[in-house]
Specification:
alpha/beta; 19 strands; Helix Hairpins; elongated; five-stranded antiparallel sheet; Rhopdopsin 7-helix transmembrane proteins; 5 domains; Beta-Lactamase; 717 residues; seven-stranded mixed sheet; 22 helices; 55% helix; single chain
């Protein structure tokens, strides 16, 4: 019997060695490395067991046991790593790390077992016939821990292999069956030895030998590492489409991948048993499962090309939901595109009407003024021309404001301003509109509001104008009320609450979400008569947000609407604001101005306004004429340059002036242009212009520019 033990140990060692050699010749891969480490651990364990059989004394036997445990401690960890990677089962990294660390600690207790009782509670031996040393080792706590860990990792291996052995082709199933048996059979054999203990014999070599034989058969006979076959199987297994192979009798499924398996299970749950004859009855069929669209396409497997001998059928299952989603998305995009084009057409038609209305008034009143002989009538016509011009300018400014807001070019410009003066200007602006509407315009101011505030005056005024205009448009009778009060006051800062309340038609509750939309006119059938760009409330919301404020509204359909804006402003005392007030009222220092514009009417308008402010002006109609004057050493304090001019535009002229500055001196050049789109100001300043003034000329803006570059009579240059 002793000879048999020794022969079996040597046989097991040979099998393990052979398996390692074959694996080392295989193409390197993660699977190959993991299985090689598993077999190498088996080989080390079998070497240790063989050394124990041939040990001549207890010391040699204990040394052999230590060698064997180097392989035993890690064999199942590498085995689990192999079967999981081969089956594409992702194990948590921390699990592998835990197994490695725990087994290393256990190996440490084995290596030092003679110094403690953690692994072996007792160590004794006897000499068997033939001189073999038989070690009797008591089971300590770490031995029990190791056995438990070994069983758990073996069980995990078996679960993974069992799950995978049901999938794939016949060859793939055979491979997985062998991998399953590589651990299942040794566990059964080891359990039998533990239970029955027929003789004193370590079952490890038997278990390892069985495992290695299973691995060898899987490698040599069933191509465990056949790269092409594995790649084909993995592609079929991992594809997002379902695949079913059916025999030629249409009665048995020969192969099914996971996607198809899940699909058919769900179809059975919903519709009952699937008839394979029915499934393969047509080349294409459609299924709706859980709201998803599937198509099944059938193709025949023939013995050879052109042969009539059908060997079976392949059913491909495609999830076509994405096509439905894509089609729906394309329909939505088409509808949105149509809506956008319609909105664009409607907007252009609407704006054409809105612009033509004041233009018609301007042309009509101008014609009437030319024909009128009564000075009072002429003055009245001119006043109406001014009001229509302001309406037209307001429409254009709204479009430009939205452009600046959407491109992020709109900026906050804070100044000291007289609040009640702003309100008086507002009342004058609204007089004509309110007079035409036959409604009352009421202003209620909180007496606590400081005389001077610091903030963006233009935007504050624009917010009020848009809200009041909106109220006037939608109110046929009654009143529009502007209320401004202090909601809260802190040291040197107040929170203004601006309310605009009308007695108009009001807003339906279902339209609340559209109130601040661009180009939106609510209740179009009822409000067909309303004029305007449809941008006012959108601008109000954006300006309020830019200044850190809020805008809300309260409305009852048929009774009216109240808009509430809360905006913080800094409190400025009269003394602090006096300097700004003085500069606004003081006479501007006289200066000689050159106006460059290819349009003679524009030159006349600009010259007239500047002369009204005390300037001496000279006009030319091209960039060439401007350069000629400068070359002749003509003296000018400021140049106002148009942008779009034929032959040589404003930018090119500016470039030439910059090149001539050593001869002519540094004369500030202000761009005077009708191009007020978002970003133009910044672009022109980068090209060398000293400032920017848009057409039509705003007198207050013109005063600001003249004071900036010429000074006032009080301050000088």
């Amino acid at each position: 019997m002793e000879i048999f033990y020794k022969a079996f140990e040597l046989f097991g060692m040979f099998i393990c060695f052979t398996c390692c050699v074959i694996l080392m010749k295989a193409k390197p891969s993660m699977n190959q490395r993991n299985l090689l480490m598993t077999c190498l651990c088996g080989f080390i364990a079998s070497v240790g067991n063989a050394m124990e059989v041939f040990a001549a004394n207890p010391s040699e036997a204990m040394a052999a046991i230590r060698v064997a445990y180097i392989g035993k401690c890690y064999i199942m960890t590498f085995g689990v790593m192999f079967v999981s990677s081969y089956s594409s089962v992702k194990l948590p990294k921390y699990l592998i790390q835990f197994l490695m660390i725990t087994n290393t600690i256990i190996l440490g207790t084995v290596m030092t077992c003679e110094n403690h009782h953690l692994y072996y509670s007792s160590i004794t031996y006897e000499i068997r016939p033939g001189g073999r040393v038989a070690m009797f080792l008591g089971k300590g706590p770490f031995y029990i821990l190791w056995m438990g860990l070994l069983m758990l990792t073996a069980l995990l291996y078996i679960i993974i292999a069992w799950r995978e052995k049901k999938r794939g082709s016949r060859v793939a199933k055979m491979r997985m069956n062998l991998l399953f048996l590589a651990v299942a059979l040794p566990m059964v054999a080891a359990s039998a030895f533990v239970i029955f203990k027929p003789v004193y014999f370590d079952p490890a070599t038997l278990a390892i030998t069985i495992s290695e034989i299973c691995f060898l058969i899987a490698i040599k006979k069933y191509g465990l590492f056949d790269t092409m076959e594995l790649a084909q199987e993995r592609i079929i297994e991992d594809t997002k489409d379902g695949l079913v192979v059916i025999d030629n009798t249409k009665s048995d499924i020969l192969y099914i991948n996971p996607v198809a398996d899940n699909f058919l299970k769900r179809v059975r749950e919903l519709n009952g048993e699937i008839n394979l004859e029915q499934l393969t009855g047509s080349t294409e069929s459609v299924y709706e499962v859980d709201g998803r669209h599937y198509e099944i396409r059938i193709s025949e497997i023939r013995q050879a090309v052109g042969s009539n001998d059908i060997q079976g059928y392949v059913a491909w299952i495609f999830d076509m939901t994405f096509i439905d989603e894509y089609t729906s998305e394309m329909i939505k995009l088409k509808e949105n595109s149509k809506k956008a084009n319609m909105a664009k057409t409607n907007f252009l038609a609407h704006m054409s009407h809105e612009i033509r209305t004041p233009m018609n008034s301007i042309v009509g009143y101008a014609e009437m003024a030319l024909r009128a002989e009564d000075p009072a009538a002429v003055k009245g016509h001119i006043r109406n021309i001014r009001e229509s011009s302001r309406t037209l300018l307001h429409l254009i400014n709204e479009i430009l404001d939205i452009s600046r807001i959407e491109t992020g070019k709109m900026e906050i410009t804070k100044i000291n301003y007289h609040f009640r003066k702003l309100i008086r200007e507002l009342q004058l602006m609204m007089e004509t509109q309110v007079g035409r509407s036959q409604i009352a315009f009421i202003v209620e101011l909180d007496e606590r509001i400081p005389e001077y505030l610091y903030g963006d005056r233009v935007k504050i005024q624009e917010i009020m104008v848009n809200l009041i205009n909106n109220g006037i448009k939608y109110t046929k009778e009654g009143s529009v009320t502007l209320r401004v009060r202090i909601k809260t006051a802190e040291e040197r800062r107040v929170l203004l609450q601006i309310e605009v309340e009308d007695t108009g038609i009001g807003i339906r509750e279902e339209d609340y979400g559209k109130v601040f939309n661009k180009f939106e006119r609510l209740d179009k059938l009822e409000n067909y008569y309303v004029e305007g760009s449809g941008l006012g409330l959108s601008i109000v919301k954006n300006f309020t947000g830019m200044m850190g404020g809020t805008v809300t509204f309260d409305s009852e359909y048929g009774k009216g609407t109240k808009f509430i804006v809360n905006i913080g402003q800094d409190d400025r005392s009269a003394a602090e604001a006096q300097e700004a007030a003085d500069s606004g009222e003081a006479a501007i220092h006289n200066g000689r101005i050159l106006i460059v514009d290819d349009n003679e009417l524009n030159c006349e308008v600009a010259s007239g306004i500047m002369e009204m402010l005390g300037m001496e002006t000279m006009s030319v109609t091209s960039g060439f004429q401007c350069l000629e004057l400068l070359q002749k050493k003509e003296h000018f304090d400021l140049i106002f340059m148009d942008h779009m001019m034929p032959e040589m535009d404003g930018v090119e002229t500016m470039k030439k002036i910059t090149e001539m500055r050593e001869e002519t001196g540094s004369i500030p050049v202000i761009l005077l242009t009708a191009n007020a789109l978002a970003g133009v100001r910044e672009e022109m300043l980068e090209k060398g212009f000293d400032d920017f003034l848009s057409k039509p000329i705003d007198v207050d803006e013109l005063r600001r520019v003249l004071i900036q570059f010429l000074g006032t009579e009080k301050t000088g240059v």
